[in-house]
Amino acid sequence: MVEQLYILQHKMEKRVASYTYCKREQGTDVTDNKGKTPLDVATECAPGVLNPVFFEKDSCAYKDNFDLVLALNQRYHNAIADILLSRETYLTQTCDERQTYQLHSAFEKNQPVIAYQILSKGGSLNCKDTQGRTPLLMYLQNGGKWLDIVLKRFDVPIRIECGKPFNYSEFHLLAFRKPTAPSDNLLEHYTCDVDYCFSKDGPFLKAIKAHPLGFRVIDECRDAEGYTALHRAAQGGNMLLVNKFLSWGADPTVLTPQGHSSLVLAIMYAGQISPYPSNQDRKIAERAADVLLRATRRITSFYIGCNSSQAKLTIYHLSAYRGLSGFVKTLLKDASLLGVDVNCPNLHGITPLYLAKLYVGTEETSKGKQDQWQEIVDLIEEYGGVLSYPNREVELNVIYRHLFGHHPNPFTLDEFEAGGEQFYKSGVSACREDDLNYYQTGIHINPYMEAVYGELIKRITASLSSADKLNFQEALRVRLVALKAMEDVSRLIN
Question: What is the pTM of this model?
């Protein structure tokens, strides 16, 4: 009977049968050979959360979103989990291994409905898994839609600890991670009646106010990497907290140990959740950059910094490379900004126009989408900009980093020496004949793979039992024959 339950739980096409099984009040504390209960399996196999289709269009519905999510997801495995949890009469605020696993598994699998059900039955948000993580830290490290709202509804305790590594600092991770729904965030609780809406402090705001530094904690509490909460909010494109922190007096001119301001971090990283640029990412970055530039100019005169005797790239360079056409337009149009030159070459001859050209034509424009980098090129040329190239050594390194997805940051803000010493150095003094064949004739077989395969095979073989080695050697022989054939074909083609 135990095996029947697990088969039903695992097979999605038999969810209704599993639901009926639970309704008949069969035992729910049984475990399989891995020690998992039916509730564990229901959590692991639950389908993705169903979201109302109008969420992205109807901003007025934000405050009710999670209630709708709960209503829409009382089905299949979520309903099964609810029934199983109704038998868990012993759920308390204790942290025994089983209860900790159940709640943490729901957070790990991004199951906010099941997490909500477990917490409603008495689960504890203070429990830690074997890695020392609370449900809050799991959410902050891994992400997950609606989990932040679940945490808020159960008033999750939040600790502000300075000097902790970013990936373990609740304070800095909360600043970095954008909320699922901006109007239902961890800062504040909103409630409305027929005539008025009211707000009270949420868990995050309570933690800030309770800290000895008060709101000064935003500027003065850094993580182990030296970033403030405003730095992390700008870096993560968390516009809610960027605006809130600035309204509470956060200083946008505070720098990271690498000399980056919140404005620079927003331009380089805001909204960038994947290595592939998207229009939505750039919109977030532009909004953050606009807000932070205005905030900076309110407290100090802002100097763009175009200077051909310095290696550092300006925000003009970085914006052009990121494709922030609206922000580039702001920089060029605003006559009150100091230190703006339409060409703006740095010490090594790198210009914003050159950096924008690297991306022109890389985006699909056939469906009415605009090429943001082409817009930047047209804009700079309209203001009199002229394309120029850096020297060959510099250009080769710029192109190499561009092709392999590296942001300009590593070679523009950190590693150039102020005195102008060349960073663009290569450890290889001359190309070998094999290198020339590989890179110039287009041979597809990497000449270095033979040595790599040899080391890999040696390590794999050493880890196998004697019985497995025979099978592995036969598979390897077939693989090597195929590779030899590919190499022969490649040479014929070239």
Answer: 0.72
